Amino acid sequence: VKPNSLLKPAIFENQNVLQQLRCGGVMEAIRISCAGYPTRRTFLEFIDRFGILAPDVLTGSSDEITAVRRLLEKVDLQGYQVGKTKVFLRSGQMAELDARRNEVLGRSANLIQRKVRSFLAKKSFIALRRSAVQIQTVCRGELARRVYQGLRREAASLKIQTRYRMHNARKAYTELSASALTIQSSLRGMAARKEIHFRRQTRAAIIIQ
């Protein structure tokens, strides 16, 4: 504040100083303070703190004072005063606005928690389903391997049985062939002996005659 228009010491121009105080909002601030407005906040501070109570009214506001007036109308606060650079609130109004702000923050926190829980539940379900698919794949693979191994064992068993039967058949055939040869040899021997005996008898008969 300049004490005089001449900028000289020891000169005090009352009207000039008063005009400067009025233009600077000092007189208005003093009047409002005396009227019972203990709480005061700059427009920017007020918007930053309580803008969440009515974020829609802040969109498209051309300046801070317009945004503040719209915000105060939206929250339906009574008895406040709007100065040139600050908002003046009566006793208890700051606490009321803070209570509303805490309520909005509480609802927002609950919504965020629900979203997070939903996201985590969905993520857990997806992971669980993926694990289930992997387990099913492993189980199917293990089952297929067991079936294949069972078939291989069965095939091996059948092969062994077939070879065993073939071995027994060959053994039986060999034994039968040997028996047949023995019988044939015996029959040939008997026939030869009979032939020799017959010839001897015939020769003896001829000699006797």
Automatic annotation (TrEMBL):
Domain of life of the native organism: Eukaryota
GO CC, any one term: membrane
Alphabetical UniProt keywords: Actin-binding, ATP-binding, Coiled coil, Motor protein, Myosin, Nucleotide-binding, Repeat
Molecular function terms, GO-annotated: actin filament binding; ATP binding; microfilament motor activity
InterPro entries documented for this protein: IQ_motif_EF-hand-BS, Kinesin_motor_dom_sf, Myosin_head_motor_dom-like, P-loop_NTPase
GO biological process terms, semicolon-separated: actin filament organization; actin filament-based movement
Pfam families: IQ, Myosin_head
Coiled coil is among the record's keywords: yes
Record domain Myosin motor: where: 1-102
Protein family (similarity comment): Belongs to the TRAFAC class myosin-kinesin ATPase superfamily. Myosin family.
Protein name: Myosin motor domain-containing protein
